[in-house]
Amino acid sequence: MAEIIKSKEDNSKVEKHPVSDKITLFEYLIMILCYLVLIISLLYGNEDLFQRSGSLVIIFVVFTQNKQTILQQKIIQYYNDKIGYHQDCPIEYKKSYQRKIFDSLILFTIVLGTVIWGYGDLIYKCIHHF
């Protein structure tokens, strides 16, 4: 579950939001699809197809990241409505450990997709040269 800490100084005030920030089946499927696109294009495609697959990976990951951003905004809005927003006591969103790991995977996939999009033809030639 997502946690909200009322202030950095008062870590004892931790509340759970009714909406979970657990990783959904949709997010898992999108990440699997990203890596399948890369593997299939590397094994069965040509250098142009492999390079273009990098752009598809970026598009898929952006959809996944957008879902997480919307969820985070909903959680913060829920608590702003519930306890009110005070400038002297800002609300902070604390991600679950599972979400932090998945977000790291998203970041890695964005970097990998960008590198493949930019240099996929060279990577393909290096791999298939041996």
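The record above closes out task 2.4. Task 2.5 opens with a second protein, given below.
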Amino acid sequence: MRKISESDVDESEVLELMNSRLLVPRLPSKGEQLAITLTLTERNIALHCWLKKRNKHHVVPAKRKLIKLLEPEVEYLSRLDLLCIVCHARRMLVPEVELSYKDWAEWFLCIIKEFRQEVVNQKFSDTDFWSKKGNHKDKFIRLLQLQLRQVRNGENPFDPNVPGNQFKFRHFSLLLNVAIGLAENDREFELQFWKPFLKAWDGRIKMLQSPSFKRHEADGDNVYVHSGGRQKKRIL
């Protein structure tokens, strides 16, 4: 494949992002703090694995079993960064979408930061799908699948300008707008970049459905670990 970008992500910026503070609406309980930390730690491990794909000398601070489990997440990140590269390089072909990123790397990091903030937002949400109060796993997965179907149909369910949209992904929304515009008019882009990204997105959803994948949610000072439809209560 021809080289389509001279810039690259600075590894130190990614590591700094992993340790950056996120906005919280109030002081979290002990359970909420631990649930957020555990979820973000998994996200960090996936980012470490993504960095290792770019730099074989990078050390991933995790056991092989967890690394194996997170492979779909890493593939999603790899397809996401490639989509950022191509969409930034070809942004002039979709002039109706205004961008201000200096390069694809800045765009990619902005999206990752949004994803990380959403982890916190979801933990504090009154409509938390992973709550211990009832089994909302299927409902949440159906929502993710619906969003993916909408994107496949050329719609953008993450547009922050849509009234009542609870998913405020401004940077990710811009990427989808450019990618959808390119895919409608460029068969090569659709086959080489867009469809593989959608496939990786679907793979990530299947990972979340897996009985092996644990989800951590809090209720006061308690943390509930959801796995395979079961709940394991942890008292702090």
